[in-house]
Each structure stands twice: as C-alpha cells, then as structure tokens.
Amino acid sequence: MTLLNLAEELTLTLDLNELANSMVNTFGELLHLKTVSLVTPNKVREDFEIISAYGWNLSECRKVRLRRDSALMKTIHSGGPHVMVRDRAVKLLSWQEANALAHDLDTVRASWVIPLFVRNDEFTGALCFSAISADAVFDEGDFQFFRQFGSLVAKALRNALSVLELRTVNEELQDVQAQLLQATKLTAIEQLATGIAHEIHNPLTIISGKAQVLLLQKERTRMDDRVEEVLKTIVKQTKRA
Hints:
- This protein has 8 helices and 6 strands; from the N terminus they run ααββαβαβααββαα.
- It is α+β, with helices and mostly antiparallel strands.
- It has a 6-stranded antiparallel sheet.
- A hairpin with a 4-residue loop joins strand 1 and strand 2.
- The radius of gyration is 36 Å and the shape is rod-shaped.
C-alpha cells in the first residue's frame, strides 16, 4: 500500500531528480533490498544511464552507460512490461546472448528488472534491483504487483522526462535568443560606427582639401611662414584623424 500510495504521489512530481530519488529510496527501504537503480534514456547521447540509485556509490552509478542495442535493452523490449528475472532470462538465450545479458545485469547490479512502459509500447525506463540475500525470491503475486507499480510510476516518469526536455529546449532557446540579441547589438554598433566615421570623414576631407589648395597658392601670393606651417599642420592632423 505504501508503494502504491507513492506511485500516486509521484504522478504529481514533475522534478525528475526528486521523483527518481523518492522512487529508488522508498522501494529499496520498504523491500529491504541491497541495490536499486533507475535507468532512463538519455536523448542527447542516445543511450541509457542511471539517474538515481539506492545502495550505490554516487560516482560509480554515474559512470554506467547502456547502449540502445545492449542485451539488456533488447531483452526488455522483447519481454514488454513483464518483470525480468535474471535466472529465467539467461536460460532462454544462447550462451553468447546469455553472457551479454549477465554482463549488463552485473553492470546495473540487478537480479530483477521492472520495465517501465506506458501503454505497453512507450518505454520510459527500468527499475533494476537486487536483494541482500542470495536466497531471496519473489513469487508471481509479487511480480503482478511490480508490474502494476511499474505501470503507475512509468507515467510519472514520462511526465518528469517531458518536463526536463521542455526545460532543456527552453534553455537552449534562451541561449539562441541571447546570441541573436548580441549579434543584433554588434550589427547596430557596426552601423553606428560606420555612420560616425562617414560623418567625420567628409568634413575632415573638405578641411584638408581647402588647406592644400591654400598651400598650392603660396607661390602666387606671398604667404607668411607661420600661416604655411599652420596649413601644413591642418593637412597632417586631418589625415591622422
């Protein structure tokens, strides 16, 4: 009942980290499990990762990556929402496939896997867990409950993943808008600088031209040396400007 109540509460939780932590910790503590991990798709890398774990070292679980074509993912998709039991699953495969699946299950430290499907076709993740005792077993009644629990939390997980994706897209959109705004500002500054340069250049050219004309007339008319020096300074400084 506690887990079913948790599943109902999680439908109102849109923060992925809060949802994942609450799910694995409550599930692990109530069932006295050794490890629990929540595996979800990473759309950026196009693989699967552990977003929260119980009984794990945080740095270790963050290193776990599963390819989309990994043995575990293939087995989950072929089995649908049914709970995967390690011992049963490996017996149904060839030895190569069984070794690959066992390796993936060792990677997520799981003896059981609850696939999280919405409407039996939309895969949102998997709840992987192991017991403290190697002799621990779950019966068919437990598996029926796990499947019911999985269908409820799968919807909550899908909603949280959708919200995270929307936030990511929104942040990327804001970054693009900021870049466009910055580019627009730079373009405006360039246009302003070009306009100012043009407005300054034209009168300076006229001033320099007038001074040069006067200097050319010094041979025709007597010109004071100080006036000539001033005119040369005007030409020099206008060019510099």
